[in-house]
Amino acid sequence: MNIKKEIVLRVRIVFLLVCLFACAIVYKVVQIQVLDGTKWKQISKERRIRYQPVPATRGNIYSDNESILATSLPFYRVAFDPAIAQTETFNAGIDSLAMLLSRFYKDQSPEHYRRKIKNARHAGRRYIRLNSRQINYQEKKMMASWPIFRAGKNKGGVIFEKVEKRFKPFGMLAERTIGFINEDKNGAGLEYSFNGDLAGTDGEALFERIAGGNKPIYDGTEVAPQNGYDIKTTIDINLQDVAENALYKALVEKNADYGCVILMEVKTGEIKAMANLGKTKGGYIEDYNYAVGNQGRTEPGSTFKLASMLALFEHTGMALTDTVDTGDGRYRIKNTTMTDVKIGGYGKLTTQEVFEKSSNIGIAKLIQENFGDNQQAFVDYLHKFGLSSTLGFQMDGEARPYIKNTSDKTWYGTSLTSMSIGYEMKLAPLQTLALYNAVANNGVKVQPIIVKEIRRADQVIQTFQTRVLNERIASEETIKKVRTMLEGVVQNGTARNIRSADYKVAGKTGTARKVKDGKYVKLYSTSFAGYFPADNPKYSCIVIIDSPRGVNVYGGDVAAPVFKEVADKAYARDLAMHQPLRARVVPNKDSLPQVKAGSLDDLGLILNKIGVSNHSTATSDDEWVRVTPQMRSLKFEPNPVRGGQVPDVTGMTLRDALFILGNQHLKVSVEGMGKRVQKQSVQPGTEINKETKITIVLS
Q: N or C: less crowded end of the chain, CB within 10 Å?
């Protein structure tokens, strides 16, 4: 065979193979289109039409007085079946409809909408999305009256696709407490914790997948969704507002990192307010629930001294008048030195004074002396008080408390005394408050609750009653002792700046150093926990201000005033707490006592006795103050007495003036008659020498 014949043969073979392949393609096309056409059309239809869930309407969240905290509002996407309307109806209304759509959405011309709808009708399309913007219910009602649309879904072709959005009528108020839930079913707060009740059960219906979206098919097989239950909380929206405003002002003033306030009813454990604010670039917002969660779990500091005193009284039966020598303000324990705030120390103090002045040394010495030989006994008391266990709070995310045990590897020689003043442990604010609430409740520890009812419309599905966690955390005698001590802190101790003439407050300040990179730094977590009215407690409250900056950054200066503002507003709103007028001494507020200067302790005691409102910028180290009238109250400001300088004694009583000037080794002569010093011959601040003489004139 020559080369030419071989080439021709190969070409013929290739041609034959191509013809066979072409015939196979034609056969396959005929098979798919004709022989198996019905089968593939059915498969295509099945893939385009399928059941999809129909979301249930989410339940509402209510406050204690039925105010809506969160609800679901209906919004709608507007779609259209352009082929369904009769020709006469369509032609008569299309121009007006296009004009109305253009005016409403303000994004396209009337000609654009007219062309879009007519092109879809001519192409036989059964579903188009007119605009992606969602409309509200009132806008839906308006659109339903437009040309073509007014014929309804079956004759006009308009399709209003319902989309629900969560709405909070009070805006940012209690935002983190109310919480959220996202599409992935993750979230926080009540929305997340009670999602199973609020969400309801989705239904299902047939939808056809077409260009532009999914068109519902109403064939009678739809399953209606079961709407979610409503929940009624214990939150008082007015007290919540008060708590958030007071907290916000304090955070801004002190440029603090974050803070929280919890207000709770003593008997029931119902949370009436829970405010959380954290610092962001845009200001302070509710970005985390510090009151309950891990980020708010810190070393409590001096507020924990209440637990130490409970353990001490239960273990020893010690009296409030028993004494302890706190020395010069420095106490060596193993290889560390504990100090008190007051330079030079407090010397000998009664047990009551140890607590009122928040003496670290006094508490540590008492605990070391009575539990040093059996340190586990102290830890066991903390377990008895329930401080090592979670409260079982209704909202997810409660932090697990950490109370160190003597068996822990980190337990060392100073752990007992460190724990006695609130270190080497961690508690969430709500867990600390539960202890104070138990003391206010005569030793009965109740579980805090924030949801009172689950219901559908007016039908109550489930009620949450007050649950007792511990029938008695301590003996009646012990509870009486610590309640006296807590009242003393406000009357005579580190929180006397929040004394009230209208009602008694009991509580404890706290100032705990922060840990950064494993070391204690000069930043503090400040707090105040307590209850009011002290003689018949209605509310307990805790305030945390983390990392305040500037001067006066102790618990009594930062957190306690927030407590007082919340307590004043709560007291003013609750008439049941007010004493009968005939049982109260009502001072003439328009005629304040002519007080000018004197001893902080003496003036505070006298003014409280006669019912005159007073507040102070002085600290516990300021023995002498000047008094300034402010509206209907008196303000105490420090009047320091410095060694080697002439003090300012104007406005003081003769007795106080002679006491101070004598201690400065000044030669004093007195002129005039009267009760108070009107002027002095040597200016305050003048250096004192052996020849310095001073004359004071009385008026």
A: N
Residue 592 belongs to some domain of the structure: no
What is the chain's percent helix, strand, coil content, to nearest 5? 35, 25, 35
**DSSP per residue, 422-443:** T-SEEB-HHHHHHHHHHHHTTT
Residues 245 and 331 in one domain: yes
Residue 481 near residue 306 (C-beta atoms within 8 A) = no
The amino acid that residue 257 corresponds to is: D
Question: For 394, which DSSP code?
Answer: S
Residue with tokens 């009256």: 145
Residues 214-248: pLDDT tens digits?
A: 556 655 566 677 889 999 999 999 999 999 999 99
Of 200, 233, 266, which one is at a domain's C-terminal end?
233
Residue 587 covered by a domain: no
Cβ proximity of 632 and 590 under 8 Å: yes
Q: Is-cis flag, bond preceding 533, omega within 30? A: yes
Give the 3-state secondary structure of 360-385: HHHHHHHHHHHHCCCHHHHHHHHHHC
Round to whole Å and give the CA distance between 190 and 395. Answer: 6
Backbone angles phi, psi at 231, to 5 degrees: -125, 140
Q: What is the DSSP string of 304-316?
A: GHHHHHHHHHHHH
- Round to whole Å and give the CA distance between 336 and 314: 28
What CATH number is associated with residue 141?
3.90.1310.10
Interval 553-607: pLDDT, tens: 899 999 999 999 999 999 988 877 776 544 444 445 455 677 788 777 777 767 7
Rounded CA gap, 322 and 325, in Å? 10
Q: Determine, yes or no, domain membership for 585.
A: no
* pTM for this predicted structure: 0.73
- SS in 3 state form for 524-569? EEEEEEEEECCCCCCEEEEEEEECCCCCCCCHHHHHHHHHHHHHHH
Q: Determine the distance from the C-alpha atom of residue 557 to the mean position of all C-alpha atoms in its chain, rounded to a whole number.
A: 21
Encoding tokens for residue 334? 């193993």
pLDDT, tens digit (0-9, with 9 covering 90-100), for 258-299? 999 999 999 999 999 999 999 999 899 998 999 999 999 999
User: Which DSSP symbol is given to 201?
Assistant: B
Give bridge partners of residue 348 from the DSSP assignment: 325
